[in-house]
Amino acid sequence: xxxxxxxxxxxxxxxxxxxxxxxxxxxxxxxxxxxxxxxxxxxxxxxxxxxxxxxxxxxxxxxxxxxxxxxxxxxxxxxxxxxxxxxxxxxxxxxxxxxxxxxxxxxxxxxxxxxxxxxxxxxxxxxxxxxxxxxxxxxxxxxxxxxxxxxxxxxxxxxxxxxxxxxxxxxxxxxxxxxxxxxxxxxxxxxxxxxxxxxxxxxxxxxxxxxxx
Length: 213
Known about the structure:
four-stranded mixed sheet, 213 residues, globular, 12 strands, 5 helices, alpha/beta
């Protein structure tokens, strides 16, 4: 794959498209592109399995990232709040909870009664094993909802396979939300087995498409 970076102006963009300079580029799972959404007021995120989310960029008023433990899982979750909309846009990844990580964080001096129990309690270990088994059977893009115990009301949820993917999406969206800027694909072409991409730095969320290949 070759990557070409171009300045912001359209004149430089056209000239650079005519004279592609080759730079080595390793593309991760997340692809940031601009120009594929005709309505510049919208942004979109597409996920494996043919599911997607589109929203109005000016209505985004909060983007957050958190990591927590629930049952046998560790969850990495990004939440986007939209003004005037009761539903949240949530993207998360789950991984089996490692109970040994808690034991490593215990203070050097603990109550004697607690210290007599060496290793991970059997009940906690069973919970972790259950999480590992469930995670191995669930597709990476499939959101699991447990009705009627949990209705997941007012949430639009998407699941990714790795916590790193969630964090990468969060950092990319945050860079554009705060106008810090990000490189985005403005043109892509195929030459045999080679993929040629032209990149341009953008600094706005509107008109941007985030895709997971």
